[in-house]
Amino acid sequence: MDDVATKGAAHKHGGYERLLAAAKAHPPVKMAVVHPCSVEALEAALEARDEGLIVPLLVGPSARIAALAREHSLDIAGIEIVATEHSHASAAAAVALIRSGGAAALMKGSLHSDELLHAVLDKETGLRTERRVSHAFVLDVPTYPRPLMITDAAVNIYPTLADKRDIVQNAIDLAHAIGIHAPRVAILSAVETVNPQIVSTVDAAALCKMADRGQITGGILDGPLAFDNAISEEAARIKEIRSEVAGRADILVVPDIEAGNMLVKQLTFLADADSAGIVLGARVPIVFTSRADSVRNRLASVALGVLLVHPHVASVA
Q1: How many CB atoms lie within 10 A of CB 34?
Q2: Phi and psi angles of residue 213, each rounded to the nearest 5 degrees, phi first
Q3: 80 burial class (0-12, 13-18, 19+ CB within 10 angstroms)?
Q4: Which of 27, 48, 81, 106 has the fewest CB atoms below 10 angstroms from its CB?
């Protein structure tokens, strides 16, 4: 847990602490941890258990999980294990647990993201809703005065306009769940004017009109906006952009997964941002963690999942 204390010294906002405190105000959530067959995945589940955030159900090859725990001196005593043969079976069994009411959320272990999402999105046995599934990061950036959400940087590769509508609505709903009641949504592109040769600018304009007509609700949209004038009031002033969103965005909607992935990693590794990641749009929240995540970031992702399970709004902004 040393990285929690060390990194915490760089963060003056206290967003991480408020997020964990809000999640801990609720009873621990039963969370199915899907195929925790790496030390990072198993540790993530146990860390969240030790913090009182979840009651983990380990779904995977029981002998392999037990051997991993012994090898790394991890305490899994008393934790229920749902035995499966391989990662595909783990994904299917975890989804079945949700459908039967045996768990309230999912947490990705050491299987590939596509394997888990394939089970989640199965038309007959999965956890689909009318929404497209999307991913959102919530970041606490030391140089930015408010929580910053970025979507979609992990699931949708080249989203269509219809996909982006769901991506935006999912992110707005997440913002509401963490206490941002009218989030300002910046639809990002390379420029802040509509250019038919840059598809993302046309999509941005269409999304804003969709919000005007009630097809997207609960947030304030503007776009296209370039990154600088989305998050810097000075940049917006210099470019004479008059907007409720420019310079004060709560949510950044990226054009595609490449832009989003690079942006999140730049803020995490160069700007020392805390990050939490969650998959939205399914029947239950799905916690996504990475092998490169710090303990701090893994716990923050689980805390997001806990807040989405419980219906009461808790402000971490």
Answers
A1: 33
A2: -95, 10
A3: middle
A4: 27
pTM (predicted TM-score): 0.91
167: Cα within 13 Å, side-chain hemisphere: 34
- pLDDT of 201-230, one tens digit each? 999 999 999 999 999 999 999 999 999 999
123-180 pLDDT, tens per residue? 999 999 999 999 999 999 999 999 999 999 999 999 999 999 999 999 999 999 998 9
Class for the domain spanning 1-128+282-317: alpha beta
CATH 3.40.50.10950 residue window(s) in the chain:
1-128+282-317
Contact (CB, 8 A) for 229 and 169: no
CATH 3.40.718.10 in the chain, residue ranges: 131-281
- H helices present in 51-144, as ranges: 62-71, 87-100, 113-120
**Taking a C-beta distance cutoff of 8 angstroms, is the pair 188, 230 a contact?**
yes
| 131-281 CATH fold | Isopropylmalate Dehydrogenase (3.40.718)
Q: What is the rounded CA–CA span in Å between residue 263 and residue 242? A: 25
Query: Token pair of 273, please?
Result: 């941002």
